[in-house]
Design a protein that fits this description.
Elements: H1 21-32, H2 35-40, H3 43-58, E1 63-67, H4 69-86, E2 93-97, H5 117-123, E3 132-136, H6 143-154, E4 158-163, H7 169-173, E5 176-179, H8 194-213, H9 230-243, H10 248-258, H11 261-269
Helix pairs in contact: 3-8, 4-8, 5-6, 9-10, 9-11, 10-11
């Protein structure tokens, strides 16, 4: 396919090794500032994808991210943060990386080039027509991801993608593509930088907007968060105090009794 990978074009900056630390940081920061503006141009695409994810989840579906390398790791990070943040079950949002869990820390040779493994990885989760699969690849050319979405399309499973190259094979494969054109990286071809930042911003939007639409946030509070440490317990107690007229001690008692901010407040108000 004939298209230009803008993520792999030569950096706007040269002779990096001759720059001072201050100049390096300043120039990286200048490039990073362009990323939210690039994401802004893709907001309508993100809206279409989120709306579909919400629709499918209301039918009992799940969300899957598939990717290789940095892209795969970013999907895993976003998926793993949904249960503690929003109190959802651990298999509602899933991150799958080419090469399996060992690839989270170390690159697995040729894993991203495998054109059959993504589908078999998804089948291990009993993927079905209520689910949504989002392929993440800055280049838009990762065989593992493209082949996975192709098999999903063949099996009537909704597909989306996050990529940083217009007209890429991945963008043309996904039913709901999100294309964030960030341009050349500070270090030529290092798509863990601006492209990675763009992917993380879009993932934040997808999971957060979806969970809000599903009622997992009240006002602006994470009322269903898991109380997994003292900091979060304290935050939960203070959330309760902000919703109902009780002391810290009473709020703490209610939280311990009911296990979540939402249940504690609803129980108090129902009396």
């Amino acid at each position: 396919m004939n298209f230009t990978k803008t993520t792999e074009q030569s950096s706007k900056h040269d002779n990096l090794e001759k720059m001072s630390v201050a100049d390096l940081l300043s120039n990286i920061n200048k490039e990073d500032k362009t990323v939210p503006l690039a994401v802004e141009k893709a907001l309508h695409q993100i809206e279409l994808l989120v709306s579909k994810v919400v629709e499918k989840m209301k039918l009992g579906g799940r969300l899957f991210y598939i990717g290789a390398g940095t892209s795969g790791r970013l999907g895993i990070v976003d998926a793993s943060e949904c249960p503690p943040t929003f109190g959802v079950r651990f298999d509602l949002v899933n991150g799958i990386i080419a090469g399996g869990d060992k690839a989270i820390r170390r690159a697995v040779e040729n894993a991203e080039d495998n054109t059959t493994k993504a589908w078999s990885d998804l089948l291990e989760h009993n993927i079905n027509e209520n689910d949504v699969v989002i392929g993440i690849a800055a280049s838009g050319t990762t065989p593992y991801v493209i082949a996975g979405l192709e098999r999903c399309n063949e099996n009537n499973i909704t597909t989306g993608c996050i990529t940083c190259n217009e007209g890429s094979p991945l963008a043309l494969t996904a039913q709901y593509p999100v294309v964030v054109v960030v341009g050349p990286e500070f270090v030529t071809g290092s798509s863990r930088m601006k492209a990675g930042t763009a992917q993380k911003l879009v993932l934040n939007m997808i999971s957060t907007a979806t969970m809000i639409q599903l009622g997992k946030v009240k006002g602006n509070k994470m009322v269903d968060m898991q109380l997994s440490n003292d900091k979060l317990v304290d935050r939960g107690v203070k959330m309760i105090m902000g919703e109902i007229p009780v002391s810290y001690e009473k709020a703490s008692e209610l939280l311990k009794q009911h296990g979540s901010v939402r249940k504690a407040v609803e129980s108090f108000l129902s009396k």
